[in-house]
Write a structure and sequence with these properties.
Number of domains of chain B: 2
Shape of chain A: globular
Oligomer: heterodimer
CATH architecture of the largest domain in chain B: 3-Layer(aba) Sandwich
Radius of gyration of chain B: 23 Å
Number of helices of chain A: 9
Number of strands of chain A: 10
Helix content of chain A: 25-40%
Order of helices and strands of chain A: EEEHEEHEHHHEHEHEEHH
Number of domains of chain A: 1
Radius of gyration of chain A: 18 Å
CATH superfamily of the largest domain in chain B: P-loop containing nucleotide triphosphate hydrolases
CATH topology of chain A: Rossmann fold
Number of helices of chain B: 10
Structural class of chain A: alpha/beta
Largest sheet of chain B: 6 strands, mixed
Strand order of the largest sheet of chain B: 6-7-8-3-9-10
Largest interface: A-B, 36 and 34 residues
Strand order of the largest sheet of chain A: 6-7-8-3-9-10
Largest sheet of chain A: 6 strands, mixed
Order of helices and strands of chain B: EEEHEEHEHHHEHEEEHEHEEHEH
CATH topology of the largest domain in chain B: Rossmann fold
């Protein structure tokens, strides 16, 4: 369901910290309904770029639009239209599953009826209905990650940003997590995802590879493999980043 | 070198280690493979004498981890999962601190850490807290090695590290191992398993299997097929209805299909799919990867519960 309608537009994005250039003139578009993989070595500048696109950090220069809103002047609008799941687990460990959902629903400004309906639907999908009064801190990591993702899209955002959502998760849960991503795409949500698992890079519609603050490759996994004469994305990545 | 017998650890009602037994030989590079929460850290912390077991026994180089904890700490190096050097000390100060605590000097064992430390030496006056992730990791490894331990225990040293740095880190481990250091390393990345001499697959506090990576993948008990298709999702849905199917999982752009031993040929799978209207598909037998083994064992494990 990829369209040609851009939901993220980045032109000449530059972010400097003192003399250090974290993002060096990035240019790309992400289309509605796409799974866009954002890959790169540690310190390549991925998290910096994501934080800018989420409206959490101001770029040094460049023109950027997210969900139709300007990155400099409309960050609050952007925040209402995106979901964000950070590397660090960000649900409240001392609150129950139900309380966490209610809390985030409140933050996103959902009304009571909407919140109730979405909560019931989500718990049923995750097969967690009978556990809704369990504290988050007592859950296995796999459940937490699936829950954190579902809460990040609770308000039906246009785009969801996932920063290494599957780190340390067992191989079965990792695949269940990707099924959740596909379901979100079916609902029309655009997915922007970073990962260190190169097999997951193959599940993306297009993949951008960053090195030293620059985007050094951007295409479909198929085209990248052809271009770099590689049998899988792991080889592509090693050839580019080494 | 490391002997573990019926080791048990419980936190309240939660069983972290369920009476596990394990033996690691001198000079081995041994991998503990499993997801977060499997019990890897609990085992390592008990071996490092940082945590008391609820039952069972463990020895390192013949020393009991409970009774002989002081001696154990002298012969082991430990790199915990969380960065735990002093962020306010510089790179050099941290290394000097660890050397002094163990009654040695940087110079005495410099040959051991030379390869690794040289990469961060240009930044030796920088505070550890200001280093990048990769540099922190190299400093932590240097500090764990500076007293020339017999046994090195590394808790998920490559978690959150990119594919290139992960490869480099494993090359460093291999070199240390070749110098005679016994290494126990944990990782959630299944593809790193093949770099170990032997591995244990750990899940929910139990060891599901212990063997060399070759033995483990070579003795896959079912039939495994690589299915290449243009429509991964549709094809996997069809394959779930294949008679004698055990599992269908995507591995990048290839589906791994597991069927009961001897029930299918590539032709019969192909025919099943073409009957469903799936034509442009290739089905070839393949050798299992560690991840295939892990998934199969995990399914068995879950069914038993």
């Amino acid at each position: 369901m990829i369209t040609s309608e851009p939901v993220i537009t980045v032109k000449n994005m530059v972010k400097k910290f003192g003399n250090f250039v974290a993002n060096d003139n990035l240019n790309f578009e992400v289309y509605k309904g796409e799974i866009f993989g954002f890959i790169g070595a540690n310190g390549a500048g991925k998290t910096t770029a994501i934080r800018i696109l989420c409206g959490l950090s101001t770029p040094t220069s460049g023109v950027m639009k997210v969900a139709g809103y300007d990155i400099y002047r409309q960050t609050e609008k952007i925040k209402q239209n995106i979901g964000y799941m950070s590397q660090k687990f960000s649900l409240y460990e001392d609150l129950t599953i139900y309380e966490n959902i209610r809390f985030y629903g409140g933050i996103y400004g959902m009304n009571m009826a909407e919140r109730k309906a979405r909560t019931a639907e989500m718990l049923e999908r995750l097969e967690l209905t009978e556990y809704e009064n369990r504290k988050i801190g007592d859950l296995p990591l796999g459940w937490k990650q699936k829950l954190a993702f579902s809460i990040a899209i609770l308000h039906n955002p246009k785009i969801v940003f996932l920063d290494e959502p599957t780190g340390g998760v067992d191989p079965i849960t990792r695949r269940q997590f990707w099924n959740l991503i596909y379901e979100a795409v079916e609902k029309g949500i655009t997915v922007f995802v970073t990962t260190h698992y190169m097999d997951e890079a193959e599940y993306c519609d297009r993949v951008s590879i960053m090195a030293d603050g620059k985007i050094v490759a951007l295409d479909t996994p198929q085209k990248l493999k052809e271009q770099y004469n590689a049998s899988n994305m792991d080889e592509v990545f090693l050839k580019i980043a080494r | 070198m490391i002997e573990v017998k019926d080791l048990h650890k419980q936190y309240g009602d939660i069983v972290a280690l369920d009476k596990i037994s394990l033996s690691v030989g001198k000079g081995e590079l041994f991998g503990l493979i499993g997801p977060d929460g499997a019990g890897k850290t609990s085992l390592m912390r008990i071996l490092m004498s940082l945590l008391l077991p609820n039952g069972g026994k463990a020895t390192m180089s013949g020393l009991d981890v409970v009774a002989d904890y002081k001696k154990i700490r002298l012969i082991t190096g430990y790199m915990p999962g969380r960065f735990s050097l002093y962020p306010d000390l510089t790179v050099e100060e941290n290394l000097k601190f660890f050397a002094t605590v163990f009654g040695t000097t940087i110079e005495e064992n410099y040959y051991l850490i030379k390869d690794i430390y040289q990469q961060i030496e240009p930044f030796k006056t920088r505070r550890a807290g200001k280093l990048s992730g990769g540099m922190k990791q190299k400093l932590a490894l240097s500090c764990a090695l500076i007293h020339k331990p017999e046994i090195l225990i590394l808790d998920e040293p490559t978690t959150g590290v990119d594919a290139v740095s992960r490869k480099e880190f494993w090359e460093m481990l291999k070199r240390l191992n070749n110098m005679g250091i016994t290494i126990l390393v944990s990782t959630p990345y299944m593809d790193e398993a093949s770099l170990c001499d032997r591995i244990a697959l750990i899940q929910q506090g139990s060891l599901m299997s212990v063997a060399t990576p070759k033995e483990m993948t070579g003795s896959f008990p079912e039939d495994l097929w690589a299915v290449r298709t243009r429509k991964i999702y549709d094809t996997s849905k069809f394959l779930e209805k294949l008679p004698s199917v055990i599992s269908v999982n995507s591995f990048g752009q290839v589906l791994h299909l597991v069927t009961q031993k001897g029930r299918h040929t590539s032709g019969s799978v192909q025919k099943f799919l073409s009957d469903q209207g799936e034509l442009e598909i290739s089905v070839t037998p393949m050798e299992a990867t560690i991840e295939d083994v892990f998934i199969l064992l995990m399914n068995h494990h879950n069914h038993r519960q």
